[in-house]
Amino acid sequence: xxxxxxxxxxxxxxxxxxxxxxxxxxxxxxxxxxxxxxxxxxxxxxxxxxxxxxxxxxxxxxxxxxxxxxxxxxxxxxxxxxxxxxxxxxxxxxxxxxxxxxxxxxxxxxxxxxxxxxxxxxxxxxxxxxxxxxxxxxxxxxxxxxxxxxxxxxxxxxxxxxxxxxxxxxxxxxxxxxxxxxxxxxxxxxxxxxxxxxxxx
Length: 201
Hints:
Blueprint: E1 2-7, H1 11-22, E2 27-33, H2 36-46, E3 50-53, H3 62-71, E4 77-82, H4 87-95, E5 100-103, H5 108-119, E6 124-125, H6 127-133, H7 143-153, H8 158-165, H9 169-183, H10 188-198
Parallel strand pairs: 1-2, 1-3, 3-4, 4-5, 5-6
Helix pairs in contact: 2-3, 3-4, 4-6, 7-9, 7-10, 8-9, 9-10
Keywords: DNA-binding, Phosphoprotein
Protein name: Response regulator transcription factor
InterPro entries: CheY-like_superfamily, Sig_transdc_resp-reg_C-effctor, Sig_transdc_resp-reg_receiver, Tscrpt_reg_LuxR_C, WalR-like
């Protein structure tokens, strides 16, 4: 039996995925996490074979969860299922150590097959997206720049960002300026848009 945890912040999608996979005779959903932090806790406590995760979630993104699990040498393998069909997301996911990356519009039988292949030690990547990613530019942002730019893109002020990351507003401003320069953007709003469209946030 393949034991999986599903991480998805949209309750309806989470329920649908769990119900769908419960129909498979060799797959058992042992946990449901509404955000990245709870997903990480569940993987640590339940030790599933596979974590099926969205990318954009509160607390930690699916990619950040995968990176932490890789650093901890967790035996749980990560399969990303997302609406984000951008090459930048895929490259970041692979760099973080995920074993699979599928789009949410994939057929149900393909998802179940991907879980089996990932659990068996294989890798499953959406083929069209993989071809696109091979020629996509590399992500120029550092992890700190990405975190700050993500908060700025969500409308936070420099002071609010600094408070949440234990940085001074001036340091936040410097990071934002550096990120904008790397992206060829004239301001933080444009930098956030470019990074989001490229799959780098």
